[in-house]
Amino acid sequence: MEDTAETQPALEIDVALLKSEIQKTYSAVSQDPERDFIFPTGRGWAEDLEYPDEVSRVPDAAVESFAGVANPFSLGRLAAGERVLDLGSGAGTDSLVAAQMVGPSGNVVGIDMTAAMLAKARRAAGEMGVANVEFIEGEVESLPFPDETFDVVISNGVIDLVPDKDAVYSEIFRVLAPGGRVQIADVTIQKPVSAEGRRNIDLWTG
Known about the structure:
By secondary structure, the protein is α/β, with parallel strands linked by helices. The chain has a single domain (about 15-195), classed as Vaccinia Virus protein VP39 (Rossmann fold), CATH 3.40.50. It has helices at about 15-30, 45-50, 60-65, 95-100, 115-130, 165-175, 195-200, 200-205; strands at about 85, 105-110, 135, 150-155, 175-185. A five-stranded parallel beta sheet has the order 3-2-1-4-5. Helix 1 packs parallel to helix 5. It is globular.
């Protein structure tokens, strides 16, 4: 019997446009955190997600722009001395919680592609006086770190925004040291997204 199934053509997504729109959205979260977004934000949302006590020490200037989707620390606390990478660190809430957990003998690197968020995260780190965290500009599909650099990779509501998820996970496993682990909070779906939906930039950015 002849197979008559048709192969669906790959959808073309304008990745440059998508990244631009994501940057616009999260720049707005940084600069105008009181605005009503289609996703929850702020300290009240972090508390609803039952963040650990360390979030209370993170300055309001950072937590007001928190836009995570869940609590990656619910998968386990970080240990003193661990090296941590925060993918899509935004205004720095997760990175600054992690920096407190790993202590002076550990270190945390937050990477994000939105300049306004990075600036906010750096100011918050300075306000807290933590010396074991840094924030750099970059993209999660192409991490600027050597192999086996980190003990833990955390991420919160970021990987779902990236079309090339294979590249992200390949980079995660490249930079993880042997025995390392991932603690990811993100959005998943149970049914295939329609072709029209996959072309809708607003759905990607929200």
